[in-house]
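Quick one, probably user error.
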């Protein structure tokens, strides 16, 4: 890896392909990354889309995807073996517009009744729109209400501009369900709580080094920042759990 020369003051710019769920954490750690010698040129999107871009061979230095995708992409030769930092564990949460009534979702049965009573619900698209969409669909199927919910669902397109929280603050949906960090990323959203009980599925996000990286040591440096005390604090502040 090419670290910044001691005689220079400009950090090295690196390209990072990352799940949208990690955007606010990386934004919060911009100063720590600069002190480590780097600025990032990020491309954000739903985890499945980011994993596909890595699989397709897009040039980048660092990838942050799900732990499962990290394993698959390492086996495909797209990520460097032996370089993996589990940087965050993310859960699915329910949100409403700030000041709106907060439904009781304390048990799976109460969550079911709240969903059936809601006039509209926003979530990630289960097909290509992000990990949370598939998790929420499976929760609805587990509760036996998927067919009943279809007519009231609005799907976010994924990526920073398509966060479900924006649909909430624009009063386009009554309830939003997405990764906790993504709901928290939009001002004006109140977090009601996590999916209850066995409906919850945690997702681990892992950082890896691209085999086509221009700056071969960048992943290690970024991973160490994310796993430092400051990084772990930022991960938790932005709505994740430490992995």
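Nope, works fine. Designed sequence:
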């Amino acid at each position: 890896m090419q670290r910044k020369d001691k005689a220079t003051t400009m950090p090295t710019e690196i390209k990072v392909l990352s799940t949208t769920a990690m955007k606010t954490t990386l934004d919060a750690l911009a100063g720590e990354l600069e002190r480590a010698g780097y600025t990032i040129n990020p491309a954000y999107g739903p985890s499945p889309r980011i994993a596909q871009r890595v699989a397709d061979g897009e040039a980048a230095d660092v990838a942050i995807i799900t732990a499962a995708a990290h394993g698959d992409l390492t086996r495909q030769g797209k990520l460097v073996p032996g370089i993996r930092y589990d940087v965050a564990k993310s859960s699915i949460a329910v949100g409403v517009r700030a000041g709106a009534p907060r439904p009781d979702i304390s048990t799976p049965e109460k969550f079911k009744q709240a969903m059936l009573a809601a006039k509209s619900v926003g979530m990630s698209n289960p097909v290509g729109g992000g990990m949370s969409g598939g998790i929420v669909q499976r929760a609805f199927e587990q509760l036996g209400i998927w067919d009943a919910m279809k007519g009231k669902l609005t799907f976010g397109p994924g990526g920073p501009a398509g966060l479900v929280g924006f649909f909430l603050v624009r009063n386009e949906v009554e309830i939003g369900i997405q990764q906790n960090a993504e709901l928290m990323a939009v001002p004006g959203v109140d977090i009601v709580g996590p999916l209850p009980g066995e409906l919850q599925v945690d997702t681990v996000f892992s950082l890896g080094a691209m085999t086509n990286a221009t700056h071969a040591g960048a992943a290690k440096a970024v991973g160490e920042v994310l796993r430092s005390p400051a990084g772990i604090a930022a991960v938790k502040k932005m709505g994740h759990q430490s992995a």
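Residues 92-199 form a domain with the D-Maltodextrin-Binding Protein; domain 2 fold (CATH 3.40.190.10).
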